[in-house]
Amino acid sequence: MPELRHDPIQKRWVIIATERSRRPSDLHVGSSAVGDAGAFCPFCPGNESATPPEIMAIRPPGSHAGAPDWKVRVVPNKFPALRIEGSPDREAAGVYDRMNGIGAHEVIVETPEHGTSLADMDYRGVERVVQAYVARQADLLRDQRFKYVLVFKNHGEVAGATLSHPHSQVIATPVTPRTISTELTSAREHYHLKERCLFCDVLAQELQAGARVVWSDPMFAVIAPYASRFPFELMILPRRHGHAITALTPEEVSGLARVLRDTLRRLKIALGDPAYNFMIHTAPNLDYEPRRVTFWQTIPWDFHWHIEIIPRLTQVAGFEWGTGFYINPTAPEEAAMFLRGIELR
Q: What whole-number distance in Å separates Cα of residue 206 and Cα of residue 94?
């Protein structure tokens, strides 16, 4: 029988309708291919002049900016969603509000190898990418015009990727996104009621129950959320409480690289390299200039950064748009059990 489950973090209901699809082979796997085969790639080594000047890069000793021997390269997006210049200048427009499209939009080119995804890299390669994630978060949060910085990845055309060369993106915004605000509110309410972190409580319960745990080690755990919106949706949670990814130790950066790579590898083996999105949810900028974030003053204790991974195996349709509900044809317990059985190679 279908089951309604409530997500205490996002405060939404999900319908787990397992009768609609019983096995991973029943799911439509969105192709990870991007339609640029054989085309000129601006992210490949030797084509550095085809992108805006690099913001940062991880290079061997003795290398210099613009040289083609980089390992990870960060550049401004050539077609940014938000512009770095100016000030927000928020103002009323009658009952509405408007502000200038101020922010930052960057591309993290994850590897010089055009056909090598995060799931196929060695751990050291993924560690360099995670180092870039942390460095760009930390740098952009120094700009007090920006209230939030999101690191995300679109893998595959169905997931929104327009170039096949492996890359992630970073967007800084002058407002806190609604999804993050809801998580912050849920975390704050839970903390004020129980004096504990909501995410820590969820993680402790999941580790004790075990049914939705895909993998865990002393530093991180991978779970299929209780109220998963999509088949094989996953969450990576640090076991040490922390509100921001920028506070990771070097050892934790290495650990995160390992768990991220292995998780994406499991999905690739299990589902045939599906398109997916992942997003890093971390704390907003507590030094945001126009209005100090006093409402979120408990963030260091109540919020818990994490990564959400969403394989693109189903489509959002009219019911979802009209109600805010999601229909998931694969129970998270089944997804976790299937992924636990995958042998990494």
A: 47
